[in-house]
Amino acid sequence: MGWTKREYIDAAFTEIGLANYTFDMAPEQYTAALRRLDTMMSEWNARGIRIGYPLPLSPSQSDLDEQTGVPDGANEAIVTNLAIRIAPSYGKNVMPQTMTSARSAWNAIYARTAKSPQMQYSSALPAGAGNKLWNQFYSPFVSPPVDPLLAGDDAAIDYE
Q1: How far apart are CA 70 and CA 51, in angstroms?
Q2: Is residue 25 a part of any domain in this protein?
Q3: Is 141 within 8 Å of 126 (Cβ atoms)?
């Protein structure tokens, strides 16, 4: 299920000292924070950190009360990194504990979700003496690379 986008924003505001129960947040502040959240998550997505956050097609299509489906292990990273991004807009300094927590949570998510790119050998690379194929036509070079079917790291390919 996951948190809603509003819950992430409220937690980030609380992290920088602007809690809901003390300060009344204007709709414009929620809209600005929502755009920062969507921008941060699209940046993570571009870096290969795909954790299930629903990215909108345009800023006007983003919904504060949309369920994110993000795993619970990523909540701390989202909240603290969002707090760091929105704090200067409200004239707030980020506490060192928040910075440390954000870095630690980011490193944990990065280690869990980042994938190293796969590589194919060039067809000009020698296969070596131990790589003779006795039941096929022998070539002294490795097989040519196969063109992959690209669908993105977070997309599934359905066969019918």
Answers
A1: 6
A2: yes
A3: yes
